[in-house]
Design a protein that fits this description.
The protein is α+β, with helices and mostly antiparallel strands and about 190 residues long. It has four helices and twelve strands, in the order αββαβββββαβββββα. Strands 3-6-7-8-9-10 form a six-stranded mixed β-sheet, sandwiched between helices. A two-stranded antiparallel ribbon has the order 1-2.
Length: about 190
Amino acid sequence: MPIMTIKDVQKLQTAINEAGLDYDVELENGNISIMGPSDIVSSEIGILFSRVLANWVYPRRLGRVFDSAGGFILPDSNLTAPDVSFVRAARLRQSPRYFGELVPDLVVEIKSQSDRISTLKKKIINFINLGAVVGILIDPDEETVTVYRSQGEPVVFQNNDILTLPELLPGWELPISELWPPVFTEEEIES
C-alpha cells in the first residue's frame, strides 16, 4: 500500500463529508485511520471537560480549546485530532482556517467503548515526545484520569482527587468526580 499524505486525507475527508457520513480521518506514519462516532458517554465527558476548560481559558484570554474535530499536523507529518486540546495564546495568536500545524500544549484522549488503553497511551506519549506539555488519558470504565508529562511517571487521579495543571493553567481546578455523566434521580426528572 502506498504512503498516504495530508492531501490524500483531505480528499478522503471531503468525499466522506459529501456522502453525508460522520467519520473523522487521521494520518499516522503514512497510514489513514477512519474513526466513526464515539459512544455517548465518551462524548459527554469530552463536552464536560471542554466546558470546564474553556470557561477558564477564554475569559482570561489564555489560548484556544479545540474538540475532536480539530486536526493538527505534527512535526512527524502525522495528522491527528485529540478528543480535547489546548494551545496557549502565545503559540497560536489566531486560528487558521486549516489544520493546526503545531503540537498542542495539552492533549486529552477519552477512552471510548471500542478503544484500547494501550493505543491511547501510545498516542499521548507521542504527543509528549513531540512537545506537548501535558497529556491526559480519561478512562470512563475505571473512572480514572492519568496525567502524562515529559518528566516523571504518569499520575493517576480518581474520584476524590482534583486535577490541576499549574504549568499551563495556574489556578484551574477540575474535581475528577465532575467528569462523569450524572445519573438523574426520580425527583429531578419529575420536576
